[in-house]
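Bumping with the actual sequence this time:
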Amino acid sequence: MSEQDNKKIIRWLFVVCGLIMIMVVFGGFVRLTRSGLSIVEWNPVSGVIPPIGQAAWEAEFAKYQQSPEGSLINHSITLAQYKEIFYVEYIHRLIARFAGLIVVIPLFYYIYKGIIPWRKSAVYLTIGALFGFQGFLGWYMVSSGLVQNPAVDHFRLTIHLLMALFLLALTMWTALRHVQGFPKVIKEGRGSLPYVLSAIMLVILVIQITYGGFVAGLKAGWISNTWPLMAGRWIPPTLFDQFDAWWQNLISSPVGVHFVHRWFAFVVLGAAIWLYFITKRHAYSANVHKAVVYFLGLVAVQITLGVSTIWFSVPIVLALSHQAVGLLLFIIAVYIRYEIVHTPIPEQIVERQTAVAQTGD
């Protein structure tokens, strides 16, 4: 692959990363404005064009009025008000379609031209396939709110979010490999504390983001507007009241989900502090140190945003900022993991050089 072709693929992959992040944040805006259930049909092709003319709008509005949200919650809204939430969800779906084209068209062009050899195309085809699957998951999520309950299933919403994160990580990892000339994984580093801890930190962060998805799906952010106490106590009295199984309260009860999410943030902070001192002790490169410092600083910002979102009863600006910073934390965690996987521990470099020198003597 020529250097020019490599740069084209790098730009393409990073553009895709940017579009994924835009879709995730805009998806949060859709949820916070209660616009996600405004379009009650999934028409991948014909849905590109919004209703045209009064009759078409009235027909679309009538479909919405028959849905659980339209009949139970927004039964008194006007056609003009319906158009507002319709266009929010319409733009969301339009961005998703545009992102899909940005993935698929260059992908097949690069394969057709041989810029991406067919035998090495698996990861790129996987990215394209996952984009299509993500569209299906989006509708699978929305459809859960069109049957009886006028709200999407929080598990489906979280799966949709986690798939976006996986797609973002895969695309970013592939782009970084292009940037650095496809470096090999350093086998000597496996099992070292930084190697293991960077993986643990990424897993802990994903758990926290998963609970953020649960909070969003259950609208648990409005359960309490006080911090650090909930209902005047450190442990809310209704924490295990909704379900008989204690564990079910921690994944399906708004009180339980909110409680876990607000305190698990400090587990993320603890892991970030630990990784900071471990990587510093092993004298990693400046890139790794900067990334860990940025991560640590953003965790502090994220906790501040989370507490502020609680105090001010989930205003859209703070809630979206909280979500955006969560995405930044994720991509930095992926970058740290990438660098540590592909970089030997400095002590091992010295040991290897010493061994070579002694052999030479």
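The tokens above came from a reply further down the thread. Residues 79-112 form the longest helix (34 residues).
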